[in-house]
């Protein structure tokens, strides 16, 4: 069967032709793509010529074109616009794709050829240029950690484990989406939502109507705390929302993730032992900038006591202002009361100054123009995978060079959270331009009403656009090093840096204007926003560290320890108590039953990456402040020395090239009030 994936798209920038793609195209394209890539691999390993970069690495980099095209589109839809049919096919494909990956990663002839190329470079027989040498070293490490050097019997067991892991992670995500949708909180009396703004109420009514319900529907977000908890005045409603959020994946029935997690953790621990490591976290960090679970534990352990102290102090402030003991469902609402009293701030009342289109055009795009000389032109002639997706052509001083797709609103077919994705990654070898997407989950307002963002949503938009900039600017010679293919504990760094511009005076003044009157945000209020940035850091750091420590606790179990765990809730409680972060009023940002990052999202043993990257981010923000802030000169330095580098060199070396020294922890400690 011919499919649209058989050849490159003919649309501008190789944008997939979503209008031509039907569900029945996916399976034949996956099967053809896998066959094609295995044939290409066989041709590489069957050569009689001595291994060289040109006859081994280059064809390997070119291989799998059909598979790459179909997988990119399929998994974009699986995350952002899924259907029952897509979910069923995803579950069928998971073990087959794992087996396909193993057929390449565990091929002894391929490993031998790459090993020979590496040795010839190291001994000077066949020297490579810097990017080529880095690519060969990366390939060698990846294959080694994938098990290429194992005995055949161990490889056979490894293949079975990889298929099991792939199946379990796919099922976790499917269960979570279903449970998240089922647990949305249905309200039939508007009084129960007292405190919500009219736009939020209209969004809740729209969500209910979309499911054929009367009244209002509060759909859940990916993390534990719902943003509307800060505004809803009725304690019983807040309790319902918090309870629903925390119940995900742990209610029994078809969508319960607890037993699945235990199976997954055991499979990962056994896989680690096969590869010669104590635990899964050791495998993961061996190929990260952190280097070891011990280094991760050292950073998290240094931050946890100060975060707990700050959270306790904040809790005392909340109790003093509200006159009541604070529970998990009360915290956000009480924190808003403190902001109003101590800082004269009502963040919910600020939403009319954060209209989404103005934030995008006069905030996000404005900062990118000032820093990098970028311009964005909406292309209504180009379509995304859903009618809600907007397509923008991106230009700099040299002209148009890529596309940016924005998918802003929540829907039942979309997983929770916010993320960036590359539809096409730029590489010199293939001559491809960059095409990137940003996905958020902003509630859709009623027809004809403006989209008003919370401050958190504003910062999320800037954050995800930082990932988009990384994908747009990254310029590698070879596909494996292209786009945002950098170490996982480095990839959050560019996005975190971009968050700084949300509150930067020049940027905030430009976009924070009242949706009805155009009146700019009062400079005194803007200053109070900045003054209040440290308030709540005890809570924010504690909830994050709890999740990061849970991830490490699960993934530093060895085989015997993993087998001994039978009660997920008891394990969570013990892990948090051991870290000194157990607090009923502060639940983890993600608990095990809905911790998609680490049980289906590729951040297993890597959720620490956000705070690890933030060390670099805080140090970089300090550099921008010391050097004049939002200037083209500063932007060009950051673009050329960091964003453009992609995965072509050691990321910490790139950081040193930009900063002039190694990263320092002090700026992070000061930012979060932990010093």
Automatic annotation (TrEMBL):
This is M3 family metallopeptidase. Belongs to the peptidase M3 family. One of its GO terms (cellular component) is cytosol. Keywords: Hydrolase, Metal-binding, Metalloprotease, Protease, Zinc. One of its GO terms (biological process) is proteolysis. GO terms for molecular function: carboxypeptidase activity; metal ion binding; metalloendopeptidase activity. Binds 1 zinc ion. It comes from the Bacteria. Its cofactor is Zn(2+). It comes from Protaetiibacter larvae. Residues 233-673 form the Peptidase M3A/M3B catalytic domain.
């Amino acid at each position: 069967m011919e499919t649209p994936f058989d050849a490159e798209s003919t649309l501008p920038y190789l944008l997939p032709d979503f209008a031509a793609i039907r569900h029945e195209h996916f399976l034949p394209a996956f099967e053809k793509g896998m066959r094609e890539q295995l044939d290409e691999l066989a041709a590489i390993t069957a050569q009689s010529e001595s291994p060289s970069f040109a006859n081994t690495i280059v064809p390997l980099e070119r291989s799998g074109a059909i598979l790459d095209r179909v997988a990119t589109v399929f998994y974009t839809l699986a995350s952002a616009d899924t259907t029952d049919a897509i979910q069923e096919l995803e579950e069928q494909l998971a073990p087959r794709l794992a087996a396909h990956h193993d057929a390449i990663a565990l091929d002894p002839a391929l490993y031998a050829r790459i090993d020979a190329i590496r040795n010839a470079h190291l001994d000077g027989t066949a020297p490579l240029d810097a990017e080529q040498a880095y690519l060969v070293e990366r390939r060698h490490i990846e294959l080694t950690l994938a098990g290429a050097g194992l005995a055949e019997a161990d490889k056979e067991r490894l293949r079975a484990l990889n298929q099991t892991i792939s199946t379990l992670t796919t099922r976790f995500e499917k269960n979570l989406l279903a449970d998240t949708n089922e647990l949305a909180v249905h309200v039939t009396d508007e009084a129960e939502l007292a405190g919500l703004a009219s736009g939020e109420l209209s969004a809740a009514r729209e969500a209910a109507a979309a499911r054929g319900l009367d009244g209002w529907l509060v759909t859940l977000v990916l993390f534990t705390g719902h943003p509307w908890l800060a505004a809803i005045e009725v304690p019983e409603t807040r309790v319902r929302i918090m309870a629903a959020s925390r119940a995900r994946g742990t209610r029994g029935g078809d969508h319960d993730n607890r037993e699945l997690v235990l199976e997954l953790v055991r499979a990962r621990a056994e896989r680690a032992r096969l590869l010669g490591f104590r635990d899964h976290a050791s495998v993961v960090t061996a190929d990260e900038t952190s280097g070891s679970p011990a280094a991760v534990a050292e950073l998290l352990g240094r931050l946890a006591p100060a975060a707990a102290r700050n959270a306790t102090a904040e809790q005392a402030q909340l109790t003093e202002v509200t006159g009541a003991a604070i529970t998990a469902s009360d915290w956000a609402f009480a924190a808003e009361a403190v902001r109003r009293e101590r800082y004269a701030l009502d963040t919910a009342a600020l939403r009319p100054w954060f209209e989404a289109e103005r934030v995008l055009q006069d905030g996000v795009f404005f900062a990118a123009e000032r820093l990098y000389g970028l311009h964005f032109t909406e292309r209504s002639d180009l379509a995304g995978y859903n009618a809600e997706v907007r397509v923008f052509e991106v230009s700099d001083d040299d002209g148009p060079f890529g596309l940016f797709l924005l998918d802003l609103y929540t829907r039942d077919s979309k997983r929770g959270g916010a993320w960036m994705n590359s539809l096409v990654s730029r590489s010199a070898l293939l001559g491809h331009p960059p095409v990137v997407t940003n996905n958020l989950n902003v509630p859709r307002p009623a027809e004809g009403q403006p989209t008003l963002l919370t401050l958190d949503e504003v910062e999320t938009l800037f954050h995800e656009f930082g990932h988009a900039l990384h994908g747009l600017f990254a310029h590698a010679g070879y596909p494996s090093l292209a786009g945002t293919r950098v170490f996982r504990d480095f990839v959050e760094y560019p996005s975190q840096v971009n968050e700084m511009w949300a509150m930067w005076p020049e940027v905030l003044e430009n976009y924070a204007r009242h949706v009805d009157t155009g009146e700019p945000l009062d400079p005194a209020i803007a200053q109070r926003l900045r003054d209040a940035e440290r308030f709540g850091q005890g809570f924010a750091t504690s909830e994050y560290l709890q999740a990061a420590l849970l991830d490490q606790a699960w993934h530093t179990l060895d085989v015997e320890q993993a087998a001994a765990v039978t009660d997920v809730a008891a394990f969570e409680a013990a892990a948090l108590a051991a870290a000194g972060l157990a607090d009923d009023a502060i639940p983890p940002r993600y608990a095990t039953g809905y911790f998609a990052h680490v049980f289906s999202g590729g951040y297993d043993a890597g959720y620490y990456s956000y705070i690890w990257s933030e060390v670099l981010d805080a140090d970089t923000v300090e550099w921008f402040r010391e050097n004049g802030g939002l200037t083209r000169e500063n932007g060009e330095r950051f673009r050329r020395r960091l964003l453009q580098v992609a995965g072509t060199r050691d990321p910490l070396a790139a950081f040193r090239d930009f900063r002039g020294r190694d990263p320092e922890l002090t700026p992070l400690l000061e930012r979060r009030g932990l010093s």
